[in-house]
Design brief:
By secondary structure, the chain is of the alpha+beta class. 43% of the residues lie in helices and 9% in strands. The chain has two domains: 176 residues, NADH Oxidase (3-Layer(aba) Sandwich), CATH 3.40.109.10; 58 residues, no CATH class. Bound molecules: flavin mononucleotide (FMN).
């Protein structure tokens, strides 16, 4: 939709178009072979990234776009090693091998620059009380990086492409390898890597909590609190299915009751904690 169309479209129509892109944005980890994408398209995605909000308008990141197949393959090798390390060092996390990246047409790498945290509120040396700003500087910084990555994924979706959001570049050894390959100072950090391509299969949906479960009107509803044992069940049993199954609602799984056990209602209903007790 160009600017003129946007100006003429009703607010409802604009939201519908935007919402549709947001719902279609998926983490897709398998791309079609042999496709290409123009630099104009990649730049139009970068332009959407440029408009992301950042704390204090610090724009605390740079964007490396990799579209040269040789550099791309070198980046992929680094991520294959990253996922191999994950299988050994973070056992239990349902990671998939990064070998799938081979058909990506381009890779966006968001490189965060932590020096720009200085732009956020700082505790004056002579101010009373504990420094409550330092920790929040971290929040502001990472939220700013999240916003740009989200903009990139949405723009990619709107262009008929698809992408994934890889966070492994934020791990020290992976970031070191990427900085050596791509030439950025190692104190910058590749917090978000977004391989882009044409989807090999249709991945439309993912589990989402019911809207009523996560919206709290005018205060926190204790019946919507997710108990610790629900989290434990997710970690023990459900995480890989919630991450990779192609459905929005758990109720649509044939084996939902078996997988969810006592937590079926908690994962599918508005109130995961009917007792209202906050554990
Ligand atoms: C901060 C963040 C880090 C993520 N890191 C990875 C990652 O390293 N590898 C990966 O395959 N997906 C990663 N994801 C994607 C999530 O697994 C994905 O968003 C989630 O399972 C929901 O699926 P959807 O994006 O298709 O809706 C990450 C997402 C976020 C927001």
């Amino acid at each position: 939709m160009n600017e003129v169309d946007t100006a003429n479209a009703s607010k409802g129509e604009q939201h519908r178009v935007l919402s549709d892109v947001m719902r279609r944005r998926r983490s897709v980890r398998q791309f079609e072979r042999g496709r290409k994408v123009s630099r104009d398209t990649l730049l139009s995605v970068a332009e959407s990234a440029r408009w992301a909000p950042t704390g204090a308008n610090s724009q605390c990141w740079d964007l490396i776009i990799v579209d040269d197949p040789v550099v791309r393959d070198a980046v992929i090798d680094i991520f294959v090693e990253q996922s191999n390390r994950l299988f050994v060092k973070a056992k239990g996390f349902p990671a998939v091998s990064k070998a799938y990246l081979s058909n990506t047409v381009a890779i966006f790498i968001v490189v965060g620059d932590p020096r720009w945290k200085a732009a956020f509120p700082q505790h004056n040396e002579d101010a009373e009380g504990v420094d409550e700003y330092a920790a929040n500087n971290e929040n502001i910084y990472y939220c700013s990086l999240g916003a740009v990555i989200q903009n990139i994924q949405l723009a990619v979706t709107a262009q008929g492409l698809t992408s994934a959001w890889l966070s492994g570049g934020g791990e020290v050894s992976t970031n070191q390898a990427l900085s050596e390959l791509l030439g950025y100072p190692p104190y910058l950090s590749a917090c978000g890597t977004i391989p882009v391509g044409y989807p090999k299969k249709d991945v439309r949906m993912r589990y989402r909590r019911p809207l009523e479960q996560l919206v709290h009107w005018n205060g926190y509803a204790a019946t919507q609190f997710r108990p610790q044992r629900m989290l434990e069940h997710y970690l023990d049993r459900l995480r890989p299915f919630l991450m990779y199954r192609n459905t929005e609602r758990i109720e649509d799984w044939e084996d939902a009751r078996e997988k969810c056990g006592d937590w079926y209602d908690a994962f599918s209903s508005p109130e995961p904690n009917p007792s209202g007790q906050l554990e």
